[in-house]
Amino acid sequence: MNETALKQMFIHMALFVTTLGAAAAVARAQTAPSPALLVLSKRDTTLAIVDPATLKVVARVASGPDPHEVVASLDGKLAYISNYGFGAYHTISVIDLVAAHPLKTIDVAPLYGPHGLWFAGGKLYFTAEVNKAIGRYDPGTEKIDWILGTGQNRTHMVLVSPDLDRMFTSNVNSATISILEKSTMPAGGVGPPPGGPPPPGVVGQPAPQGGPPMPPRAPDWNETVVPVGRGSEGFDVSPDGKELWTGNAGDGTISIIDIPAKKVVATLDANVKGANRLKFRPDGRLVFVSSLAGPDVAIFDAASRKEVKRIPLGHGAAGILMQPDGTRAYVSCSPDNYVAVIDLKTLQVAGRIDAGRGPDGLAWAVR
């Protein structure tokens, strides 16, 4: 082979490799739609990435053992999955949603039983049932940078307010909801005690011998524990931030908490035994409750607090996710191995998604 032919061969090979790379990039893009619906399959231990336009699964990724809840980062590039195991596990799986590939697993030990997840302020909040606590993971430093105890049994789900000043947890075995509020303190830390200024070395004051001042004290949190019904698990806060509704699986009731007053103002005899998840429609007018012990999703009017409708789905339901634009709700029908798609205007089932066996946790990812 002469020199010219050899050069041409190398040029063709380079073009071929470039074409393959471009094709691979296109394939990756096709497996990561934006927005994307994320669905966990407990029995298959996978995360399904679903195109909501076609309701088709475009990729399946290993989720780690006993996946229960999933949440996406704010940029929609990563998914975090709690590996629960009813307290046996201490890991959170991380998925690259663009490449549809698992990344390094986060070990949260000595915290055990991670379950509820919430992503806010660039950080991942999670409950740790065994430790009766909430933890926070910083993806930037790859460390748990904060832990707060609730003192309640089976702290299960967590919700963090957009301003990061308020958090809520459901505590299943204690039959309570925790309202956690960041306390307000004077600039520089604690204020002076009665009778005079703080001694040298106290937070915000110069250290002895003219040393540097102590660093500011970390924010404190005040907890209000609100008793609700037995088996309080799924809950949601109304879009206006005024009410918290929680389904009580053991009682079949719904407790409504006035958030500013921090107390239960109504208990609905809702007939939702086995209540698993509860979600407000994005406009705040309707409340959806799923039950693993019943064949349908119950819908309530938020203003009148009356039942509006029950939508039959099969043999039980778990996770509920509202599409942000208010057009659809997705409900994991775990015993029947599909996700039901509900039209939020007609309140009718509009489709089904085969996302794996035992679907449960759901999330929305937007890049």
How would you portray this structure in words?
The protein is mainly β. Helix content is 8%, strand content 46%. The protein is built from one helix and 29 strands. Strands 4, 5, 6, 7 and 8 form a five-stranded antiparallel β-sheet that branches. The chain has a four-stranded antiparallel β-sheet with strand order 3-2-1-29, with no helix packed on it. Strands 9-10-11-12 form a four-stranded antiparallel β-sheet, with no helix packed on it. The protein is globular. The termini are far apart. About 6% of the residues have low confidence.
H-E string: HEEEEEEEEEEEEEEEEEEEEEEEEEEEEE
| N-end to C-end Cα span | 50 Å
Radius of gyration: 24 Å
| Chain-averaged pLDDT | 89
Approximate shape: globular
Sketch the major β-sheet.
5 strands, antiparallel
